[in-house]
Amino acid sequence: MPTMPDVRQMFAPASLATTAQLLSAMSRQQLDTQIQQGKLIRVWSGVYATRKPTTRDRLAALDLLMRHEAVACLGTAAALYGFDTEATTAVHIFDDGTRMRPTVGLMVHQRTGAPIRRVAGRLATTPAWTAVEVARQLSRPRALATLDAALHSSWCTPTELARVVDEQRGRRGIVQVRELLELADGRAESAMESEARLVMLDHGLPAPALQYEIEGRGSQRWRVDFAWPDARVAAEYDSVEWHAGRDEMLRDRARFAGIQELGWVMIPIVSDDVRKRPARLANRIAFHLGA
């Protein structure tokens, strides 16, 4: 009985191999056994890895299938730059004439004329182009979150985003992106902060200062998500993840108390305030601003 090859020794960790390469060292039955035992993981049809593939592994596997480097776009490119607010799971690439067919987990796009650069060892659409491409396909709140995140990442500037908006004029969703670009701010540190700020602006509230630092007694300094310093009103977006443990909760409560002792009104915001009760949230803030 033939000895079963150890694929984990045949290929370095995280490396990839095509079916043809594997069959050069083992029989089809042995290959099927390795797959059934979980020693080989299917990345795409005809390409396998020795561990659960990352996005970069999946792109590298496409390189093998296409026989040249795949170009990442949309959410996949945004993830490479670090400003993917949508937790993209599918891999998005250009149709460059190779005639790759979309399949489960793979989206192939026509993007004629899109500028390309290299990031983290991969080819991808440029940061500003990527941000605008993603934003014009999303709802207003999520589009603003993408623009904010792109600016926060420092991969692109407002001027570069505005130039791409002009280059993409006439495309679906570009009018909305042009309007939102005037509101985009790289100081936002999360997508939900961006959504909350849009609620405030849409309801006619004064634009808040973002990531505002409040000086406490002695050497204490606290930073808040939103602030209206003249009214001594601040607002904070609270996520479930932020209060992941007892220590975090106690530290946050002490911070709130310290800011309130200085005469500030602290307004907590949760996701339901932003997405289900936006008018009520705006009225609550307006009340404290006018009190």
How is this structure best described in words?
- This protein is of the alpha/beta class and 291 residues long.
- It folds into 3 domains: 7-49, no CATH class; 67-186, no CATH class; 201-290, Endonuclease, Chain A (3-Layer(aba) Sandwich).
- The protein is built from 13 helices and 12 strands.
- It has helices at 7-10, 19-23, 28-36, 55-66, 74-81, 127-135, 140-152, 158-167, 174-181, 191-202, 246-261, 271-275, 278-290, and strands at 16-18, 41-44, 47-49, 71-72, 91-94, 106-109, 116-119, 122-125, 209-215, 221-228, 233-237, 265-269.
- The strands form 4 sheets. The chain has a 4-stranded mixed sheet, with helices on both faces. Strands 1-3-2 form a 3-stranded antiparallel sheet.
- It is elongated.
- The N and C termini lie far apart (85 Å).
- The mean pLDDT is 90.
Short synopsis of the structure:
The protein has helices at about 5-10, 20-25, 30-35, 55-65, 75-80, 125-135, 140-150, 160-165, 175-180, 190-200, 245-260, 270-275, 280-290; strands spanning about 15-20, 40-45, 45-50, 70, 90-95, 105-110, 115-120, 120-125, 210-215, 220-230, 235, 265-270.
What does the largest sheet look like?
A: 4 strands, mixed
Query: How many domains, as an integer?
Result: 3
Taking all Cα atoms into account, the compactness measure Rg is 24 Å
Overall form: elongated
User: How many β-strand runs?
Assistant: 12
Major sheet: arrangement of strands:
9-10-11-12
Mean pLDDT: 90
Please tally the helical runs, counting DSSP H or I stretches of 4 or more residues: 13
Succession of helices and strands: HEHHEEHEHEEEEHHHHHEEEHEHH
Q: Determine the N-to-C terminus distance.
A: 85 Å
Task: Bin the helical content.
Answer: 40-55%
Residue stretches low in confidence (pLDDT < 50, at least 5 long) are: none
Protein name: Cullin, a subunit of E3 ubiquitin ligase
Organism: Mycolicibacterium rhodesiae (Mycobacterium rhodesiae)
InterPro entries: Restrct_endonuc-II-like
